[in-house]
């Protein structure tokens, strides 16, 4: 049984004498009315709280139980369903993942990447968020939207690759038709074309070997006239290592390396670029040859 003096305190007096933990324990035995619509129960509780003057003495046991009931209802009917509907897939370094979305779209996620989507709404609104790099084989149907920090990709039914890391953003079209938007600009690309975001905006290019942009799906990292800094960053992702490079990271190279043999990959990059490397556990020091 509760002390009557505690029941007749003002809210401020009660808060001074009771921790949040104790207040929550008081609410733990709360039983919500059965057989009433959730909005009716919530409105009733809110009205009771509003009718209580903050300056008069009140029965705080009832006051805090009512407040707790409001919180419980909000969580139960608002927050929890949204949390259950939210889906996310994230890969670590040296890891790839495959999944099939609710509409049948197939996705391959490269290392250190993440996608998020709403399972409940996805079939009616095919929308997802991407950080990193992924290949999509989109099921034909209504508009499919991929949102990244650097730009937006819209397709109907196609195969494409999307890369969005830091400020770098590019999209290649394998089949179908793709609309890419970024920085208030748009480009439409078709099979064999790709678009990248640079200082002048979205630049579209053609490639006779567009399939090279998705070689990573088969365990091969491919680079064409790419800066060493970007190549080393991909090495870090694919092998889960840390690279310290003492040299000119803006030098460019065109190379392929396998993602399953670190030493071989370092040889492929460093030997033609006349670089030395030293491996210490998961740390790699790379420097220019003297």
Topology of helices and strands:
Layout: H1 4-7, H2 11-17, H3 20-27, H4 38-51, H5 60-85, E1 86-90, E2 97-100, E3 106-109, E4 114-118, E5 126-137, E6 144-147, E7 152-155, E8 159-165, E9 168-175, E10 178-182, E11 185-189, E12 193-198, E13 201-206, E14 220-227, H6 228-239, E15 242-246, E16 252-258, H7 262-270, E17 275-280, E18 283-288
Parallel strand pairs: 5-6, 15-18
Antiparallel strand pairs: 1-4, 2-3, 3-5, 4-5, 5-8, 6-7, 7-10, 8-9, 9-12, 10-11, 12-13, 14-16, 17-18
Helix pairs in contact: 3-5, 4-5
How would you explain this protein's 3D organization?
- A hairpin with a 2-residue loop joins β12 and β13.
- About 5% of the residues have low confidence.
- The N and C termini lie far apart (about 85 Å).
- α4 packs antiparallel against α5.
- The chain folds into 3 domains: about 80 residues, no CATH class; about 120 residues, Sandwich (Jelly Rolls), CATH 2.60.120; about 70 residues, 3-Layer(bab) Sandwich (Phage tail protein beta-alpha-beta fold).
- It is about 30% helix and about 35% strand.
- Strands 1, 2, 3, 4, 5, 6, 7, 8, 9, 10, 11, 12 and 13 form a 13-stranded mixed sheet that branches. The protein has a 3-stranded mixed sheet with strand order 15-18-17, covered by helices on one side. The chain has a two-stranded antiparallel sheet with strand order 14-16.
- The longest helix has 26 residues.
- The protein has 7 helices and 18 strands.
- It is of the alpha+beta class and about 290 residues long.
- InterPro entries: FecR (IPR006860), FecR_C (IPR032508), Ferrdict_sens_TM (IPR012373).
- This is FecR domain-containing protein.
- One of its GO terms (molecular function) is sigma factor antagonist activity.
- Keywords: Membrane, Transmembrane, Transmembrane helix.
């Amino acid at each position: 049984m509760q002390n009557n003096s505690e029941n007749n305190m003002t809210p401020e007096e009660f808060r001074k004498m009771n921790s949040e933990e104790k207040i929550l324990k008081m609410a733990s035995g709360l039983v919500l009315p059965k057989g009433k619509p959730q909005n009716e129960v919530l409105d009733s509780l809110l009205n009771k709280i509003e009718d209580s003057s903050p300056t008069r003495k009140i029965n705080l046991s009832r006051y805090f139980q009512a407040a707790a009931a409001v919180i419980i209802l909000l969580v139960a009917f608002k927050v929890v369903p949204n949390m259950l509907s939210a889906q996310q897939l994230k890969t670590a370094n040296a890891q790839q993942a495959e999944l099939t979305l609710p509409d049948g779209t197939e996705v391959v996620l490269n290392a250190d990447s993440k996608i998020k989507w709403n399972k409940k709404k996805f079939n009616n609104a095919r929308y997802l968020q991407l950080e990193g790099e992924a290949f999509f084989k989109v099921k034909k149907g209504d508009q499919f939207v991929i949102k990244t920090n650097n730009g937006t990709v819209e397709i109907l039914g196609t195969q494409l690759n999307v890369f969005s890391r830091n400020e770098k953003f590019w999209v290649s079209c394998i089949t179908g038709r793709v609309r890419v938007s970024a920085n208030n600009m748009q480009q439409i690309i078709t099979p064999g074309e790709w678009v990248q975001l640079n200082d002048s905006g979205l630049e579209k290019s053609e490639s006779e070997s567009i399939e090279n942009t998705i070689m990573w799906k088969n365990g091969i990292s491919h680079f064409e006239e790419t800066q060493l800094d970007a190549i080393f960053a991909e090495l870090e992702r694919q092998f889960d290592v840390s690279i310290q490079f003492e040299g000119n990271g803006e030098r460019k190279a065109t190379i392929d390396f396998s993602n399953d043999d670190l030493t071989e990959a370092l040889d492929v990059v460093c030997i033609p670029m006349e670089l030395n490397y030293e491996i210490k556990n998961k740390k790699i020091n790379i420097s220019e040859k003297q």
